[in-house]
Structure formats: structure tokens, C-alpha cells
Design brief:
Helix content is about 10%, strand content about 45%. It has about 260 residues and is mainly beta. The longest helix has 13 residues, at about 5-15. The chain is globular and about 50 Å long.
Length: about 260
């Protein structure tokens, strides 16, 4: 992307900043979501935070600011994820990195495939003296406003979900829960949710009449594959590093 086009697009998304705030608050459950995926790290190491888009199949461009604790996380390097459309490019605004704000603009002439897509990764250096705890990775408006648009430039309603970097490990005993939903947001009854750990052991849960499920006593700090099966819908399996209890790990079915 040329420098001229980059700054023109920043001007467009700036004019939409107010509407981005509104759509974050009113995004419907089961709709379009941008989220930071929780991850664990140790002091003095590097950590990579993945960012996912729950796509409805018509998104082309997105912009936002990633906020982080710059006393613990530093030197962010952003890269495109594995789920972006062909021809995607990423531009970053690093003017406020020292204050813990990194501007992101990802643009493409194509659209995302429907489903959960990893669209970006940011690698940080973790301070050697970092204390044990959770450090939020959130979404903001400065220096780059929040905006998701179609190939024709139409602003798309989007919910933004923050994540955490957990420094240090914790003991077993966290919970993982959420809902399994149809494409129109209804809870799916009697779907099977599986959670497979790094040792290959698989745990199963069956959703309630409103689509809720829960796993208890999960060892944190490890990666798990979480999948869903039902008679009517298809679901995308997600790979997560679970560092704390998750209460909103929702899955939306595909026709």
C-alpha cells in the first residue's frame, strides 16, 4: 500500500471513530468479533499474542489501537496472521509505543472467509523483572481508531474483546465455559464440546438446553484444542493457551 493511500484511509477511519465506539457496545451475540487471545509467558522471554476475527464473510479492512503495559511488554512487532485474505497488507503506527499504544491498519482487496480467522500476531519482549500476574491487551482509539469495513467501504458492526498476557504459571483448577450458538445466535442443545490437552487426553461436555457448557479443574499454562460437534452445524476447532478461567469461550455454527 502506498503512503498516500495509508494516510487517506486513516482519515476515513478517524471520521468513523464515534461509530466504532457505538458498534462495540451494540454488537449482537454471535456476530462479528475481534479479540485478543489469552497467552502465557515467563519474565525475560518473548511472547506472541494472536488476534482473531470471527468473520461473517464480508470484511476487507480493519484498524484499531492495541493497548498494553509498556513497563512489562515492549518492542512490539506486528505481522499478518494465517487467516487473512490474499493480498493483505499491514501498516503500524509506532509513535505511541513507549506509552503502550500500537496503531494497526490491515487492508485487503479481498474479503475474509467466514468463521474464526487468525488475522494478526504481535510479538513482545517481556521484562526480566516482570511480576507474576495478568497484563491486559485491550483495544483503543488512539492513535488509530477502531473500524471494520467491507470491500466497498461500508462500516461493519463489530464487538472488540480484550485478552491477557499472564506472566508466570498458575496451579491447576481454572474453569472453561461458554455457549454453542447457531448462526442466528440461538443456543444449541445437546452439542458435544471436546477439550484436548497436550497429552492427548480428551474431555467431553454436552451443552444445556440454552447451549451452555463448562469444564472444571483445567490445568492452566498449557495449549488445548477445543472443538464442537452437532448434528446440524459445522464448527471451527480453536487452539488456545489457557492461562486463566475463561467464561465466554463461545462457538458459532456454520451452515
Amino acid at each position: 500500500m502506498s503512503s498516500r493511500r495509508f494516510f487517506l484511509m486513516l482519515g476515513v477511519v478517524a471520521s468513523l471513530a464515534f461509530f466504532s465506539v457505538v458498534t462495540e457496545q451494540t454488537g449482537a451475540q454471535g456476530g462479528r468479533v475481534i479479540r485478543a487471545v489469552n497467552v502465557g509467558a515467563e519474565p525475560g522471554e518473548q511472547v506472541t499474542v494472536s488476534f482473531e476475527l470471527v468473520s461473517l464473510g464480508n470484511e476487507s479492512s480493519t484498524s484499531f489501537t492495541v493497548n498494553f503495559d509498556s513497563t512489562v511488554l515492549s518492542s512490539p512487532v506486528a505481522a499478518l496472521g494465517s487467516g487473512v485474505p490474499d493480498g493483505s497488507v499491514i501498516n503500524t503506527n509506532v509513535n505511541n509505543v513507549a506509552a503502550g499504544r500500537l496503531g494497526i491498519l490491515i487492508d485487503s482487496t479481498n474479503t475474509y472467509a467466514t468463521g474464526t480467522r487468525q488475522f494478526m500476531r504481535i510479538t513482545f519482549n517481556v521484562a526480566a523483572n516482570a511480576q507474576l500476574g495478568l497484563y491486559p491487551v485491550t483495544f483503543g482509539l488512539t492513535p488509530t481508531p477502531k473500524s471494520v469495513s467491507s470491500a466497498t467501504g461500508t462500516l461493519l458492526d463489530t464487538t472488540y474483546v480484550p485478552g491477557n498476557v499472564q506472566i508466570g504459571s498458575t496451579a491447576a483448577g481454572v474453569e472453561v465455559s461458554g455457549r454453542v450458538l447457531s448462526p442466528d445466535g440461538r443456543g444449541i442443545r445437546s452439542a458435544t464440546v471436546s477439550l484436548t490437552g497436550p497429552d492427548g487426553v480428551k474431555r467431553m461436555a454436552t451443552t444445556s438446553s440454552f447451549g451452555y457448557y463448562r469444564f472444571e479443574n483445567i490445568k492452566s499454562g498449557e495449549s488445548y484444542a477445543v472443538g464442537v460437534s452437532s448434528k446440524r452445524y459445522r464448527f471451527t476447532t480453536r487452539i488456545l493457551q489457557i492461562v486463566d478461567s475463561l467464561a465466554d469461550l463461545d462457538f458459532v455454527g456454520l451452515e
